[in-house]
Write a structure and sequence with these properties.
Elements: H1 15-43, H2 53-75, H3 81-108, H4 117-140, H5 145-163, H6 167-180, H7 188-198, H8 204-211, H9 218-238, H10 243-263, H11 275-286, H12 292-326, H13 342-365
Helix pairs in contact: 1-2, 1-5, 2-3, 3-4, 4-5, 5-9, 5-10, 6-8, 7-8, 9-10, 9-11, 9-13, 10-11, 11-12, 12-13
Keywords: Membrane, Transmembrane, Transmembrane helix
Transmembrane segments: 20-44, 56-75, 82-100, 120-141, 148-164, 217-234, 241-259, 271-289, 296-322, 342-360
Length: 380
């Protein structure tokens, strides 16, 4: 094992080793994505099981991520100090969150929301982990198509992670529609467990509390402020027109491909967030404006308005599509939309966009930081 030597973060990394490490991260995040994509659907059908197949699949990705974290930390290959710290902190937070989540379920029973504190810790850990990987690849990958494509893939994983809690509402809205059609996806023991925890009989009110447990305004506000901000970061880092759109297309495309695999094998379906593609396109268009502050102002306004309009259109159009594909009537194509929340979404996105512009300007203005990567992968 010629590369298994202790070293400081930032050491020169052989090109082939650099690629192996980051393609390993692609594999780890792919396993975690497949597990998480299955996980929400699983929990809308079955009572929680620590060793459920989605958890096992996600754990395999986590194990690979942990191994890569140890390799980076011990050898110093493939990362600068900032990337390594982000990866280590992210992995650490995630590993701490896992037993806390298990304890939470043991003490409090069923988590009737993806937005619980222990779940948010899992997302936060993954957030820092992927952020560190993005930085490591961004700083160290040589110019070329592979650099752009892999960076886009990591950013799509980043979008998937931040959007993950929103899937509760995306699955929930179609589960309520199924109830209204006289069908139930969840097994009886899960419904009874949820009803007992809420202190209610199994009725539509209980189903709504189970399927849509958070305020309706949260879905669009979070999607715009957090999700669209990731698309702004994607456009900034990749630096090409269409980058934000393609990152959104990649994530939505995966959700679209997974949809029939779950739906037609007996698992609950979800509303796919197609509106993110429109939001990504509008982010790309906004970057045609040159002055950063004006770009952020106009971009936040246009992207927010476009995302809300696209959500309304998705609800109207995809409801009928889901009716046809699932064999129901009167389904909605998106979670409830509170249009009055658009003001807060726009202000939140504007603040985030201005922060991204400021950080990008700071990086360009810092001597030596933008000139060359911290990691200089050797080609021999």
């Amino acid at each position: 094992m010629p590369y298994w030597t202790r070293g400081q973060a930032g050491r020169e990394t052989p090109h082939d080793l650099f690629r192996v490490l980051y393609f390993g991260w692609l594999a780890a995040f792919t396993l975690k994505l497949l597990g998480s994509a299955w996980d929400v659907s699983w929990h809308f059908k079955w009572l929680r099981d620590d060793l459920a197949p989605p958890h096992v699949l996600n754990s395999a990705g986590t194990a690979l991520a942990l191994a890569l974290t140890i390799i980076h930390g011990y050898t110093g290959y493939g990362v600068d100090k900032a990337a390594l710290r982000l990866i280590q902190w992210g992995t650490g937070i995630f590993l701490v969150a896992v037993p806390l989540d298990l304890i939470n379920h043991r003490v409090n029973g069923l988590d009737i929301t993806s937005w619980s504190p222990s779940h948010l810790m899992l997302y936060l850990g993954t957030f820092f982990m992927i952020a560190g990987v993005i930085r490591g690849w961004f700083m160290g990958a040589p110019p070329g198509r592979e650099r752009v494509v892999v960076l886009g893939a990591f950013l799509a994983f980043f979008l998937e992670n931040v959007h993950f809690p929103e899937q509760h509402q995306e699955y929930g809205i179609l589960s309520i529609g199924a109830w209204d059609n006289g069908a139930v996806y969840a097994e009886p023991i899960l419904l009874q467990f949820a009803a007992d925890q809420m202190g209610r009989p199994i009725d539509r009110t209980m189903m709504t509390g189970f399927a849509l447990p958070v305020p309706d305004f949260l879905y669009p506000v979070y999607a715009v402020v957090v999700g669209v901000s990731v698309l702004v970061v994607a456009r900034t880092l990749i630096g090409r027109f269409g980058a934000a759109t393609l990152v959104a297309v990649a994530y939505v495309g995966v959700r679209t491909l997974i949809w029939p695999l779950l739906t037609y094998t007996g698992f609950p379906p979800s509303a796919v967030p197609f509106f993110l593609v429109i939001a990504g396109l509008l982010v790309d268009v906004a970057f045609l404006v040159r002055p950063p502050a004006l770009r952020a102002l106009l971009g936040a306004a246009v992207a927010t308005a476009g995302a809300y309009a696209a959500l309304a259109a998705q609800n109207a159009v995809m409801g009928g599509v889901y009716d046809l594909l699932i064999g129901r009537q009167g389904l909605l194509g998106a979670p409830p939309l509170v249009t009055s929340s658009a003001v807060w979404s726009g202000l939140g996105l504007l603040a985030a966009w201005l922060a991204v512009e400021w950080l990008a300007h700071r990086r360009r203005a810092s001597p030596g930081r933008a000139a060359s990567p911290v990691i200089a992968p050797a080609t021999h």
